[in-house]
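Quick one, tokens below:
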């Protein structure tokens, strides 16, 4: 069991309060901070940083610890390093002599925003990339790994809920430009990263709240979901994307009157997953 609170410059790891469950809530993209020593390579405006952050998702899941979950929240902007990519996912134009990446131009270091505007002033050197990985990426994923193994040791099962949000309509840098998205998109790599009962629970919870659901479209689950989602090992991972129109004004970048309802939705999902998780033990 993770018994202590960790608060650092780049992420926060909070242990459960009350009765612990096998659930971990991971929020890798809500952060806005840019460490000063990485700022020189960044072209993006503060508005772009906010537009491409999962604004307020850390607040939506802020009470997860009261539901017995462990909560891991990143503070750093994904423009500095994207924590939901593999560290080998390197865009050849973002890092000098970097290998070609299937996710270019938005790999572990972004070259373009989702509006297809430049956010990187010049390609990083390999040393500069390693600095970001050593300072931010690797400690974050070490903390996540420790949390997962702790849940497995204690319960024999772990449910990883990767909390994300998405623009309600696809942008120019997306594959679904100008397409209106569903309210909730569970990403499970084709229903492979979690037991069917977990995936069904997420969908049922959303539909009971009057929300539309579309699986894996346009997001099938990122690195954490793909890496940790191993039902045969007892780890069930689901990436949950929430359309931002549900709780914020996407132009003004502020919360709306819908925020409390979606916060209640998120809290309820964490509680239901915690209650259902123990039945998944092999």
């Amino acid at each position: 069991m993770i018994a202590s609170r960790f608060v650092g410059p780049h992420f926060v790891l909070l242990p459960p309060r009350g009765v612990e469950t096998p659930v971990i809530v991971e929020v890798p993209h809500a952060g806005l901070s840019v460490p000063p020593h990485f700022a020189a390579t960044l072209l993006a405006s503060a508005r772009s940083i906010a537009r491409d952050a999962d604004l307020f998702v850390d607040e939506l899941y802020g009470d997860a610890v009261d539901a017995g979950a462990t909560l891991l929240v990143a503070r750093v902007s994904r423009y500095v390093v994207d924590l939901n990519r593999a560290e080998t996912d390197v865009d050849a134009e973002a890092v000098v002599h970097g290998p070609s990446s299937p996710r270019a131009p938005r790999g572990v270091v972004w070259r373009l925003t989702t509006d297809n505007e430049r956010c990187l002033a010049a390609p990083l050197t390999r040393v500069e990339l390693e600095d970001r990985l050593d300072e931010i990426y690797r400690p974050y994923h070490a903390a996540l790994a420790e949390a997962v193994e702790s849940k497995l040791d204690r319960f024999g099962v772990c449910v990883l809920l990767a909390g994300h949000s998405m623009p309600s309509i696809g942008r120019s840098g997306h594959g679904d430009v100008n397409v209106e998205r569903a309210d909730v998109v569970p990403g499970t790599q084709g229903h492979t990263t979690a037991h069917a009962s977990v995936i069904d629970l997420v969908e049922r919870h959303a539909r009971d709240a009057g929300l539309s659901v579309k699986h894996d479209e346009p997001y099938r689950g990122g690195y954490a979901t793909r890496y940790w989602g191993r039902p045969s090992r007892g780890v069930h991972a689901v990436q949950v994307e929430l359309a931002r129109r549900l709780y914020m004004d996407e132009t003004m970048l502020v919360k709306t009157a819908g925020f409390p309802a979606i916060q209640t939705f998120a809290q309820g999902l964490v509680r239901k997953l915690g209650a259902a998780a123990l039945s998944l033990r092999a």
